[in-house]
Specification:
binds flavin-adenine dinucleotide; single chain; globular; 14 helices; 466 residues; eight-stranded antiparallel sheet
Length: 466
């Protein structure tokens, strides 16, 4: 029998168990396809609470999961029949404008960081939705609107406070526990609970951004133009290619509502005239059927899709890294893209060149530094009755394109249970090093509710962190 009161008395935060009126809400994750029933949910208020939870979990032999923003599509922030270390109350952002750094608590979302940093004309590269957690996105890599100019989120991580599997709290940085610092820049939640992230912040204030859309019949032309353009484009420009169904609302004109189209969502961090000059050849090549490319504050761009992709939808996604977009691959994309099963379903090709290529393949566990895109095929719908349909579409699409991929896929665009081979393929040559570091910091795989890296056998685990 678990001592609920014992845990509760040791925490400043809240402990929620089944039967509590808050339980149903607290166990929810962003992807409504996932429903897990933990034994206890500990909403930690500070580092001391996290330490207490880890000790309590160990003492009672509990499975433990770490919840940051709850956005993981595989629902990896929540576990069945175990203890959830929920970081959502550890929410603070300190911006140091002189040092150009941002420190964010382990439970922040990117919206929290964007809001705070924007006031100082700064931003940390993250993703494309502001409600995503800083924790999971950063620890898996982090790619989004600023990737081509400032690199992945992990390329901007300077240090982290990590509570380890034995309950000690340590700093991971280039100077302290450098092996741990290497591992958490892509290795996910395998190595401990990050209670605080210190990031480099970059000059970003107003950006020229938004989508350009074309008829599906022009998709092959646009994709082929885009594959040549994006590898040569200035790094201040980011643009991801998408298949989408036009949502029925502003800014989209009524005749386009519910129409399947292809598009590129741009973000240019520079003067508008310059952006116009760079994109003029595209407008001449194939004038877009619609565009909403306008100057806007960076946080507005970050939140542009929040209203469409609200929590509580059904999600199923599959991903791959892509080095080359051949004509055959383009033909398959246009075939499957034209079969988008629901309004919210989509396919995105995120560019990961430019600044993201400036780190070597061993500098972080994120080994695919030579890939040009991260492809994600996403079946999404509000109706649980469509779960199988969106899943089948995403799987079929991915299976058709997988032979044209680079091998692995972005770890943050995976469901749970894709298998060890898939995780190995994703980390490639860096997997064995990750497994050795895992054996040093978490020899009994205490943190295993994640895209798991099993501790390497035969590593001297007496070597304590440091
Ligand atoms: C709508 C949507 C849009 C997205 N867009 C992007 C995007 O543009 N770019 C991109 O790179 N990714 C994107 N993602 C993927 C996202 O990075 C992952 O889903 C990520 O896992 C979410 O992090 P979270 O903290 O919200 O998740 P959670 O579900 O809370 O956590 C997921 C896992 O991360 C680990 N974790 C989280 N926080 C911590 C912590 N503080 N310490 C230790 N471990 C922790 C744990 O292992 C946990 O199991 C998107 C996801 C969604 C659903």
């Amino acid at each position: 029998m678990l001592s609920f009161t014992q845990l509760k008395s040791g925490l400043r935060g809240e402990v929620i168990e089944p039967g509590d009126s808050r339980y149903e809400e607290a166990r929810k994750v962003y992807n409504a396809m996932i429903s897990r029933k933990p034994r206890l949910i500990a909403r930690c208020a500070d580092v001391a609470d996290v330490i207490t939870c880890i000790r309590f979990g160990r003492q009672h032999g509990l499975k433990v999961s770490i919840r940051g923003g709850g956005h993981n599509a595989g629902g990896l922030g929540i576990c069945d029949d175990g203890l959830v270390i929920d970081l959502s109350l550890i929410k603070y952002v300190h911006v140091d404008p002189a040092a150009k750094t941002v420190r964010a608590g382990g439970g922040c979302t990117w919206g929290d960081v964007d809001h705070a940093a924007h006031a100082f004309g700064l931003a940390v590269p993250s993703g494309i939705i502001s409600t995503t957690g800083v924790g999971g996105l950063t620890l898996g890599g982090g790619l989004g609107y600023l990737t081509r100019q400032f690199g992945l989120t992990i390329d901007n991580l300077l240090a982290a406070d990590v509570v380890l599997a034995d309950g000690r709290s340590v700093v991971a940085s280039a100077e302290e526990n450098a092996d741990l610092f290497w591992a958490i820049r892509g290795g996910g939640g395998n190595f401990g609970v990050v209670t605080s992230f210190l990031f480099k912040a970059n000059p970003v204030k107003m950006v020229c951004a938004g989508p350009m859309l074309w008829e599906m019949g022009q998709a092959a032309d646009i994709m082929k133009w885009y594959r040549e353009f994006i590898v040569r484009a200035p790094e201040e420009l980011n643009g991801f290619f998408a298949f989408m169904t036009v949502p029925p609302g502003p800014p989209f004109p009524e005749p386009l509502h519910f129409k399947k189209m292809c598009g590129i969502v741009w973000c240019y961090n520079g003067p508008e005239e310059q952006a116009e000059k760079i994109l003029a050849p595209l407008r001449k090549f194939r004038p877009p059927a619609f565009e909403y490319f306008v100057p806007m504050p960076f946080p507005m761009l970050q939140a542009m899709f929040d209203g469409l992709y609200t929590p509580g939808l059904q999600w199923y996604w599959k991903a791959d890294f892509v080095k080359e977009l051949s004509d055959e691959a383009v033909a398959l994309h246009t075939k499957h893209g034209a079969e988008l099963p629901t309004l919210h379903s989509t396919m995105h090709l995120y560019p990961i060149n430019g600044a993201a290529h400036k780190k070597g393949p061993n500098e972080t566990p994120w080994g695919y530094r030579d890939a040009i895109w991260s492809e994600v095929i996403v079946g999404v719908d509000p109706d649980p009755a469509n779960k199988d349909r969106i899943t089948a579409w995403a799987k079929n699409y991915w299976e058709a394109l997988h032979p044209y991929g680079a091998g692995g896929g972005y770890v943050n665009f995976m469901m749970e249970g894709e298998g060890e081979d898939r995780i190995r393929a994703t980390y490639g040559h860096n997997y064995d090093r990750l497994a050795r570091i895992k054996a040093k910091y978490d020899p009994d795989n205490f943190f295993r509710v994640n895209q798991n890296i099993a501790p390497a056998a035969g590593v001297n685990v007496s070597a304590k962190a440091g």
